[in-house]
Design a protein that fits this description.
Layout (H helix, E strand, L loop, with lengths): L7 H7 L3 H19 L2 H9 L4 H22 L2 H4 L2 H20 L1 H4 L1 H29 L5 H30 L1 H14 L18 H8 L5 H28 L3 H29 L1 H18 L6 H32 L4 H28 L4 H20 L6
Helix pairs in contact: 2-9, 2-10, 3-12, 4-8, 4-16, 6-8, 6-10, 8-15, 8-16, 9-10, 9-13, 9-15, 11-16, 12-16, 12-17, 13-14, 13-15, 14-15, 14-17
């Protein structure tokens, strides 16, 4: 593979290998995801009349069910195949969006349908995607490959929020849900450019949990747990905070797109640096930078502040997350025939972290605490902790 991931030679070469399917898949899917992106958690928050308590309860139910059903769904890796599972999962994501769009009319029935659809999508898609990516990643060029796929994602998610925010203002959420769903379903087609991939998963739920706490796995488990804590705050709570603070969908859309430009540039730089300098040094710096950037989010009160402080946050998060992902995929790749066990237990750990944080938010909101301030401090600590624990992953 050539050194320049943007060269025509690299692009032509990538189309001849398994990784190219993931590049195309990521481009199409993440444009569809980006149309909604930050707006789905905002939609849920607005649906519950600005109640952080009910918003957290909605997501907590998803995380709990995902933990329960992840080991069960893993039995389909061998029976159906990874690529088919990824394809099958997307109609359920479309159903999730459909149920959310009709929730104002059908209430609790639509919410239950949304939760079931999202859980089904999650347990089918994410483990299969991570296993497929980890199997075909090149150990010595993981930084470039992870960087390239994240650049593709960033570019799509930079363009899409501009269009998404405009469409929500003009047409409302419902038409955008439909358009986004179409992109997500179509995105699966590139995955069939090569043969199916199968993995035989042999652990039951009890063995999966015990696997998490083996001595050689405890560092990874801890890292993934705190990743889950931080990601719940970033993916589900922060959008509610921004909606409460800014209040204008169109403004949130264009500012989010602008801040993602910085993430795209950082992804290119960090991706190249990983293969030259290694992950550990980058994560030590990135974890501190990321931790401090979370505290800056507390200062956001105006659109300008959102643009400035969230741009800094995107830089810090990318500098931290990219080497962390590289370590995680390398470790999964090294497991060879046990790669599926590693990925499933990773997803259980991440969802346990998300569930724990959601429960803390529920308790805090019930007691009348400022959950945003407390949560951002916890996110700051979590970013520092799980990244620093993550620096030991490559040595296990």
């Amino acid at each position: 593979m050539p050194d320049n991931v943007f060269s025509l030679e690299h692009i032509r070469h990538s189309f001849k290998q398994e990784m190219s399917e993931l590049y195309w898949f990521s481009a199409i899917k993440n444009f569809g995801v980006g149309l909604l992106g930050i707006f789905v958690p905002i939609y849920v928050y607005v649906y519950f009349d600005g109640s952080v308590l009910f918003t957290a309860m909605f997501y907590a139910a998803q995380f709990l069910l995902q933990i329960i059903f992840l080991p069960i769904a893993a039995g389909l890796f061998y029976k159906i195949g990874l690529k088919r599972l990824i394809s099958i999962s997307h109609p359920f994501l479309a159903l999730y969006l459909l149920f959310l769009s009709v929730a104002p009319q059908y209430g609790i029935v639509a919410l239950i349908g949304a939760i079931i659809s999202k859980v089904t999508y999650f347990v089918l898609f994410w483990p299969a995607y991570h296993i497929d990516f980890a199997k075909f990643i090149h150990k010595n060029k993981s930084g470039k490959e992870i960087g390239f796929v994240n650049i593709v994602i960033s570019v799509m998610r930079t363009i899409a929020p501009l269009l998404g925010g405009y469409m929500i203002v003009i047409y409302g959420f419902a038409p955008l849900f439909v358009i986004s769903s179409v992109f997500m379903i179509v995105s699966a087609f590139p995955l069939f450019m090569s043969s199916e991939v199968y993995e035989r998963y042999t652990m039951d739920w009890r063995k999966a949990i015990s696997y998490l706490f083996r001595k050689q796995n405890i560092n990874s488990t801890t890292a993934f747990f705190f990743e889950g804590v931080e990601s719940f705050i970033g993916l589900f709570l922060f959008p509610a905070f921004i909606m409460m603070t800014i209040g204008e969908i169109n403004t949130i859309g264009w500012i989010t797109s602008l801040t993602l430009v910085f993430a795209t540039i950082t992804t290119y730089i960090v991706g190249r640096s990983i293969d030259k300098r290694g992950e550990n040094k980058l994560m030590v710096f990135g974890s501190v930078f990321h931790s401090m950037a979370w505290l800056l989010q507390l200062l956001i009160t105006t659109p300008i502040q959102y643009m400035v402080f969230n741009s800094i946050f995107r830089l810090a998060s990318t500098a931290n997350r990219l080497p962390y992902m590289s370590v995680s995929y390398k470790k999964a790749h090294m497991k060879r025939h046990r790669i599926d066990e590693f990925i499933i237990t990773r997803e259980i750990s991440v969802n346990a972290g998300r569930l724990s944080m959601a429960l803390l938010v529920i308790i805090g909101a019930s007691l009348g605490f400022n959950v945003f301030m407390v949560s951002f401090v916890i996110a700051s600590i979590s970013a520092l902790l799980f990244r620093m624990v993550g620096t030991t992953v490559s040595r296990l």
